[in-house]
Design goal:
Elements: E1 4-7, E2 12-15, E3 17-20, H1 22-25, H2 38-50, E4 55-57, H3 65-72, E5 79-85, H4 97-115, E6 120-126, H5 130-134, H6 137-147, E7 151-157, H7 161-168, E8 173-179, H8 186-190, H9 192-197, E9 201-205, H10 225-238, H11 245-256, E10 261-265, H12 269-280, H13 286-291, H14 300-303
Parallel strand pairs: 3-4, 3-10, 4-5, 5-6, 6-7, 7-8, 8-9, 9-10
Antiparallel strand pairs: 1-2
Length: 310
């Protein structure tokens, strides 16, 4: 059983590893990563529960993920996090007023149905931006859903430090999901301590950088040759095998914020085993983490998978 941490102001007891389910519902990640079959996906979800993983992250944008999570975890004692996209008009501009409220409510209603739940434990604004949060409309809507008992905690999944700080400045946001890896350390000093000071829970994603910090790095295209070289350098510095590399990469994220939950995509028994092993190893101390700062990259073409070539 993996170690647990107090998560959110509601004092949830949550495993240090959360299960990411995007790869269960659609092709995702470096290399030819196809989703498992329906029965295998449901068995994996239940195996996560057996290992003490009790927080599962999904989204309407993740293919069949919500339906699989709903079927696989129906009646189970666990926490489920999903998301709502920022709705836009025909020109790609975020909706306002009643159209915004309607679109968000319809999205939430569909998620509740697919997840077979009457309440969403954690509802996150997917790819939330500072500009969108500053308008205040979404905060009002989230407050109303909490008052109606449709959601328990509101959160934001963001890219970039500025958007993360904007989310932390929004009183309704109780959980922040950010990208952190041994290569992407931007959130470590400016955002994670601020979240801790404000009592905002943190979910760390992209710990394995979409699979680049695994043996699948060899499948990266030539456009990302520099990233491939960085992975090989880290592997050599750690003096670890390919099978040990993802465990080390997860251990880094578990160490930079010991109150955070690290979100790991789990598409196989081996990936589940790696995540459990990382969660049960001792965190690295400040001196060791300081040494790893030299691996941080700032080129968003390398550390932001949205910018990678198709």
């Amino acid at each position: 059983m993996i170690n647990r941490v107090r998560f959110t102001k509601e004092q949830w007891q949550v495993g240090r590893i959360a299960a990411g389910t995007v790869g269960l519902g659609m092709a995702y990640g470096v290399g030819d990563q196809r989703p498992p079959g329906r029965r295998q996906a449901i068995n994996l979800l239940r195996s996560c529960l057996d290992e003490g993983i009790n927080l599962f992250d999904t989204a309407p944008a993740y293919g069949d993920s919500e339906e699989l999570v709903g079927e696989g975890l129906a009646g189970c004692d666990c926490y489920i996090a999903t998301k709502v996209n920022i709705p836009v008009d025909e020109d790609g501009n975020p909706l306002r007023g009643s159209r915004l409220q309607t679109a968000l409510s319809q999205s939430l209603g569909r998620s509740l149905k697919r997840l077979q739940r009457q309440t969403i434990d954690l509802l996150q604004i997917h790819n939330a931006t500072a500009e969108f949060l500053a308008r205040g409309e979404v905060a009002e809507w989230l407050d109303r859903q909490k008052a109606a008992g449709l959601i328990r905690v509101a959160g934001a999944s963001v890219y970039g430090v500025d958007n993360a700080l904007a989310a932390l400045g929004c009183p309704v946001i109780g959980c922040l999901q950010v990208a952190v890896s041994v290569f992407d350390q931007r959130m470590v000093e400016g955002v994670l301590p601020r979240a801790a000071a404000g009592g905002v829970a943190v979910m760390i994603r992209s710990a394995l950088l979409k699979g680049a910090l695994t043996v699948r790095v060899t499948d990266l295209p030539d456009d990302l040759a520099r990233l491939r070289e960085q992975v090989l350098m880290v592997k050599d510095d750690w003096q670890c095998s390919w099978s040990e590399l993802p465990v080390r990469a997860l251990r880094y994220c578990l160490s930079v914020d010991r109150r955070a939950v690290v979100l790991v995509g789990i598409n196989s028994r081996q990936e589940l085993s790696d995540a459990v092993q990382a969660a049960n190893e001792c965190e690295w101390g400040e001196e060791r983490l300081a040494e790893m700062k030299r691996w941080a990259l700032t080129d968003e073409q390398l550390i932001d998978p949205r910018r990678w070539p198709a």
